């Protein structure tokens, strides 16, 4: 049985890899880069080969998942800016100082493009990297080389847009697959709560991490589908079908989130009954089924879910055991069984695509497009985007001047390239990128050196270089360290074939990578962006998210008209604020000031906030529509507690080491009483600590 499961897991991994968007995009990108290089080299036009290859290579990294309109905008913006960037840098070659100033100004301008959104931010970063490559390559004919770079970019996006026109929902299918897979992982973490051998605090941290992963996948789906005007037309059958699937997927996750109890008390009450073990097996069954369903979206084939007799038997056993317990334990166990059954029904609904969703204002769930005003709002020194843009510009200027100290080095521009790739707004991200860059680089150098020593056939070496380039594209988004590992031997082999093997390439690659990493890491202290200093406003948004979600659910359940915010939208905003708070904690853990921060207190706030959201979701999924008077009074008190905590969050002291961590909530309370008790805990931790 274990062997069969192992084979099934390996099969799923292989399907996920070869059918996934990352591999297919990598294959497309590699062909788009290699083809013009090979063509122009065969025709004897070396400069044209380098220019088109460089343009196609760098511009391919701006091609984020998206629909046709978004990709077309990226294409126009990228191709235009690539020509302008290449030409401007080429004009500065008359003086090293002029080149350095040019790099400084271009870096600042392109880094500020982050104010317009993720897609524009990536385009800006790639323009900076292109400027570095042009500075290092130092082409002779500036206009010709600029046109070739633009041509390479246009060639790439032509192929990409044709592919998008043929397969318009390819990225959406990938996103749904990733969302279902992340939901399955979330389910498995929920199973650990029923295992007495696991630490509950660790379970909560893992659950919140998985919650953050699911939210990111849901946001990607929203950006891909809800911003696609063509897909959102009522007459578009495929678009409506995907919308129905997405709605069922999100509803499934809501149901999974609503499975929440006082697990410490639950473990004690059901110890030795066999109930906990049965629940774990049932959840694992559901997670396995969900994983299989997620794979079907990569293959674009409908998978028939066949009811497993063992699963049905276990579900019946749970019901039989429930009726042998006292009334309190019986109600709890039957509620757990009902939740598991509903999750199974939602999985079936996602598979069958039979969800009839209500009319929803989907535009609410998509961020408003950025404008010039977005940029103007960041033209203040308090803006992290402006601070990072200045830091990166100063860094690139310094790296450029340092590279001039090595006049005989052919690849001194790798210092500048490493700085641009490594330097990130937050300290922890820069630190992680440093480690990934160094690890991948030196592992790649060892592999590249071994191949250059063992393989002497030029065609085989070029084939290996192309394969490594494909590896770089495949892992660039999901696994940065692995992508660096692949691009290093790719570059070493290509340069060695082009210019002849020399230890100079290996030495310079090593030296300038280390130097660039050191500069980028040290510069984290220039105009720093410390999460520990900005935790108060992040906390305020977290509490506001809790308040708005609970308020919208209470208003909706009470049957009142004129609801300011729908529960679904409020839940999205609450999830967003929780994900941002969780992200802030992870960044703080790697900052130098972490020893002055009460991390356990932040974890406590994080867990309570998550539990309030989970209980609020359970409240709205409760089939009993009206709220009884006692429940309404309790929930009004809960709102007052959260509101008080939010208004006083500016006085919160994250460095208070004397904060007493609160005890858990009694599971015998009903939903309204539990939410109120949690809100008292939240208020106490935020204000008294």
Structural features, described:
The chain has 689 residues and is mainly alpha-helical. The chain folds into 3 domains: 18-167, no CATH class; 171-365, Methane Monooxygenase Hydroxylase, Chain G, domain 1 (Up-down Bundle), CATH 1.20.58; 531-688. Helix content is 74%, strand content 0%. The protein is built from 26 helices and no strands. Helix 18 (427-454) packs across helix 20 and helix 22 packs antiparallel against helix 25. It starts with a helix and ends with a helix.
The percentage helix is over 70%
Q: Which fold does the CATH topology of the largest domain refer to?
A: Methane Monooxygenase Hydroxylase, Chain G, domain 1
Low-confidence stretches: none
Coarse shape: globular
Question: Would you spell out the secondary-structure blueprint of this structure?
Answer:
Elements: H1 2-19, H2 21-42, H3 46-60, H4 68-91, H5 96-111, H6 118-137, H7 142-166, H8 170-192, H9 200-226, H10 237-257, H11 263-269, H12 275-299, H13 309-322, H14 327-352, H15 372-377, H16 384-403, H17 413-422, H18 427-454, H19 458-475, H20 480-499, H21 503-522, H22 535-557, H23 567-588, H24 599-621, H25 629-647, H26 671-688
Helix pairs in contact: 1-12, 2-3, 2-7, 2-19, 3-6, 3-7, 4-5, 4-6, 4-7, 5-6, 5-16, 6-17, 8-9, 8-10, 8-12, 9-10, 9-23, 10-14, 12-13, 12-14, 13-14, 16-17, 17-21, 18-20, 18-21, 19-20, 22-23, 22-24, 22-25, 23-24, 24-26, 25-26
